[in-house]
Amino acid sequence: SARHDVSRQSQFHTMALVNLSARIIENSYFLRHFENQWLLRFHLQAESVGLFSEGMLAFDGDGAICAVNQSALNLLGHERGGLLGLTVDSLFDCPRDELFARASTQASTNWPLRTRDGRRLYAAVRGQPRSVPCAVKPQAEA
């Protein structure tokens, strides 16, 4: 009946709203809980970095992954236990020093980033920018 179809459609919309709300809450908690960690934000589309469907991956100063959100797991095709403890440069075709150098406190600029299996994502890194270390030539003794 028509009434049954309307009820089913209402349930679908209600579930979609609940799922969206849960994702927004998860991402807000993630951002707050890991505010002192490096944070890689990424998505398949550049315009979606920073939105509720983005993947987020928190990592420490050595590049070791300490947390991921559900969207990151979905985008990378991994399970949570399989990512924790790995280094970011084992997942992405980008040296960790380059990730550190691209960081900003707002993570407002994104760039193309490839996974090790060749998929193209767009990413931004939140953290205090680090310069890439360079070799210093010893001065000749006078």
Q: Could you characterize the architecture of this molecule?
A:
The chain is α+β, with helices and mostly antiparallel strands and 142 residues long. It has one domain (2-126): Beta-Lactamase (2-Layer Sandwich), CATH 3.30.450. It is built from 5 helices and 5 strands; from the N terminus they run αβββααααββ. The protein has a 5-stranded antiparallel β-sheet with strand order 3-2-1-5-4. Strand 4 and strand 5 (120-126) form a beta hairpin. The longest helix is centred in the N-terminal third of the chain and has 32 residues, at 2-33. The radius of gyration is 20 Å and the shape is elongated. The termini are far apart.
Number of domains: 1
**Helix and strand string, N-terminal first?**
HEEEHHHHEE
State the separation between the terminal residues, measured CA to CA: 96 Å
What's the arrangement of strands in the largest beta sheet? 3-2-1-5-4
Query: Class by helix and strand content?
Result: alpha+beta
What would you call the shape?
A: elongated
Q: What can be said about the biggest beta sheet? A: 5 strands, antiparallel
The CATH architecture: 2-Layer Sandwich
**Rg over CA atoms:** 20 Å
| Mean pLDDT over the full residue set | 87
CATH class: Alpha Beta
Number of helical runs? Answer: 5
Which fold name is given in CATH as the topology?
Beta-Lactamase
β-strand number: 5
Helical fraction equals 25-40%
Percent range for β-strand residues: 15-25%
